[in-house]
């Protein structure tokens, strides 16, 4: 079902969350088929995906989901990003609207590897599937998957219809390569998370030094992987979901990229939670125990579904 224009975001969000919680607890989900997929990347390497289709002949609108973390996901991980019985209420909402959902993997390369090309290859594979409407394909990714979604939008232009990203990692690679951990925005990370951030920065900087020693133009490389530096190339409507309670990719890490896209005149929507942790945009499991987290989950679900409805079912 769709919410009417002017409906209270809180009321609509609460209704969505209640429906999603019911689906999660009862195990009820729309019927359809779930297919493991192998598609060739730019170099011919086969990459895994999982396609969930509604019943009926199609062609269907589709949401491509991109997981976070590193590549090489298990089939169970891909199912959690695509199947009707996913524990993600966000994925359940995609199914409730009759959309196909295609979860794509990428190889576990080092940062700045071929995972970017893998994602583009996966989206183009879906565009060539006759059961899918190629003009109604959206992309939704979180964390590293959000970064890869932004890069896909840069590389593919209007081959995708719109893009949603949750706490996208490394939208400005120069922050990770050159930023001072004791200065904003890196300094907003709380002390308990600081050692994790320090290790990650050290890994990235060590990798870049190896590339520099091998003759790479590191500044150019950083900019080529930067959504901030290429904000004007992201031509499709984009939804950002961030949180000030996220200690992995806080809102402040992403803010300058959002500002760059707005300055470039791009269509941008933003939802910023105040307390929700990293990954809140997938809305996994039962409703959170605290009222604030439950309200933020409901609001995020309402915004995500409204955004993609406007893009896929205008």
Provide an overview of this structure.
The protein has one domain: Rossmann fold. Helix content is 40%, strand content 18%. The protein has 10 helices and 8 strands. Helix 9 links the parallel strand 7 and strand 8. The longest helix is centred in the last third of the chain and has 22 residues. The radius of gyration is 19 Å and the shape is globular.
Would you kindly provide a brief summary of this structure?
The protein is an alpha/beta fold. It has helices at residues 9-26, 75-80, 89-96, 115-127, 144-156, 173-178, 194-213, 218-224, 251-263, 291-312; strands at 32-40, 46-54, 60-66, 100-104, 132-142, 162-166, 238-243, 268-273.
Number of helices: 10
Highest-level CATH class? Alpha Beta
Quaternary form: single chain
First-last Cα distance: 14 Å
Q: How helical, in percent, are the residues?
A: 40-55%
CATH domain fold name? Rossmann fold
The counted number of beta strands is 8
* SS-based class: alpha/beta
Biggest sheet features:
8 strands, mixed
